[in-house]
Amino acid sequence: MATVTIKAEEAKQLVIQKLQEAGLNDQHAKKIAEVLVHADLRNVNSHGVLRTEHYINRLKAGGINPDANITFQSTGPVTGIVDGDDGFGHVVADIAIDHAIEMAKSSGVGMVTAMNSSHCGALSYFVQKAAEEKLIGIAMTHTDKIVVPFGGKTQFLGTNPIAYGVPAKTKQPFILDMATSNVALGKILQAREEGKEIPEGWAVDENGAPVTDPNKVASLTPFGGPKGYGLAVIVDIFSGLLAGAAFGPHIGKMYDDLDKKRKLGHYFCAINPAFFTDPDVFLEQMDRMMEELQQVPPAPGFERVYVPGEIEQLHEARNLEQGITIASSVYEFLTKKVQ
Ligand SMILES: NC(=O)c1ccc[n+]([C@@H]2O[C@H](COP(=O)([O-])OP(=O)(O)OC[C@H]3O[C@@H](n4cnc5c(N)ncnc54)[C@H](O)[C@@H]3O)[C@@H](O)[C@H]2O)c1
């Protein structure tokens, strides 16, 4: 696949310009660009600027509100609800995690659900924000059905990711950000874009049989059999039902019905370690735990043990210097002048 490497700042500006041309206000366009480029910097390209074209198609078709008036309603000392007004999920999620962070700072914990939202991108962005404030962040979002339930032939659940961000004293935060499917749908889309095969076990065809051709993928599989399946349902409960949104097969489609508002839900939580233990000791122990994990001798075939989030952080450090690498077709779209 032909690729182009550009500086993160250039990518951001291109995305902002495209979104503005499509009728989005500056503030929302900037936030979306930041979340997308965050993903590309971490080599999570499946959730990076590659998605801009789809978002613009949905925006133009009427499936996203370009003038969303996103509001927060406090529902208790440490709880609240964000109403996304059918705007961009990245902006809705950002506002929701900010409210959770503020409550956790003053009251120890903050929990916020978001409703009337849309695709919010890579969850790592939001839990990292909490970790940067020396808080623990948790995020979940449901998505439309593509994953078979364990033992089932037809799809019911989304790739329903869950993410945790935990701060440390001197080291970068622990960031576990994972779809509850074996892989995120974006990785299948990326393999299609790149003309590559996918490993066996990632997906099944319309008969429920394993496939390696990304073009034959009908459904994805949950990771870890019944465990990943159970977690995917939990994500649908927290980010869907608790947010007053739909579940599984009733969730608005990402790549169909572009003219319809998706009405997605998200769940965010921030926890202040200082309300539970000595915060300095907690942060030192996080450093120590991660160091000791990294020192575990590697098994045959492994270079070393990484902590969750570390590989992406290494990519980010390098890509900040050298630039992010995206498909040439994506770059062409981003740089194409409006007729
Ligand atoms: N918004 C949505 O609707 C949606 C839906 C699905 C996925 N996503 C996003 O897709 C992205 C990719 O998800 P994914 O499940 O494909 O991620 P992944 O499988 O690449 O990584 C999952 C986690 O495992 C960790 N990890 C990977 N290799 C490791 C190793 N060797 N040692 C230690 N830790 C390791 C990573 O740091 C990460 O925290 C995430 O950002 C997720 O939020 C978003």
Q: Would you give an account of this structure?
A:
By secondary structure, the chain is α+β, with helices and mostly antiparallel strands. The chain has 2 domains: 3-64 and 316-335, Orthogonal Bundle (Hypothetical Oxidoreductase Yiak, Chain: A, domain 1); 71-275, Ribosomal Protein S8, Chain: A, domain 1, CATH 3.30.1370. 39% of the residues lie in helices and 17% in strands. The chain contains 10 helices and 11 strands. The chain has helices spanning 8-21, 26-41, 52-61, 89-107, 124-132, 185-194, 226-240, 279-295, 310-322, 328-335, and strands at residues 3-6, 71-76, 79-83, 109-117, 136-141, 162-166, 174-178, 203-204, 219-220, 264-271, 324-327. The strands form 3 sheets. Strands 2-3-4-10-5-6-7 form a 7-stranded mixed beta sheet. Strand 3, helix 4 (89-107) and strand 4 form a beta-alpha-beta unit. The protein is globular. The two termini are 27 Å apart. The mean pLDDT is 96. It binds nicotinamide-adenine-dinucleotide (NAD). Nicotinamide-adenine-dinucleotide binds at residues 44, 47, 119-124, 141, 143, 159, 161, 163, 175-179, 183-184, 186-187, 306, 308-309, 311-312. Nicotinamide-adenine-dinucleotide is lined by residues 44, 47, 119-124, 141, 143, 159, 161, 163, 175-179, 183-184, 186-187, 306, 308-309, 311-312.
Topology:
Blueprint (H helix, E strand, L loop, with lengths): L2 E4 L1 H14 L4 H16 L10 H10 L9 E6 L2 E5 L5 H19 L1 E9 L6 H9 L3 E6 L20 E5 L7 E5 L6 H10 L8 E2 L14 E2 L5 H15 L23 E8 L7 H17 L14 H13 L1 E4 H8 L4
Parallel strand pairs: 3-4
Antiparallel strand pairs: 1-11, 2-3, 4-10, 5-6, 5-10, 6-7, 8-9
Helix pairs in contact: 1-2, 4-5
Nicotinamide-adenine-dinucleotide binds next to strand 7, helix 6 and helix 9.
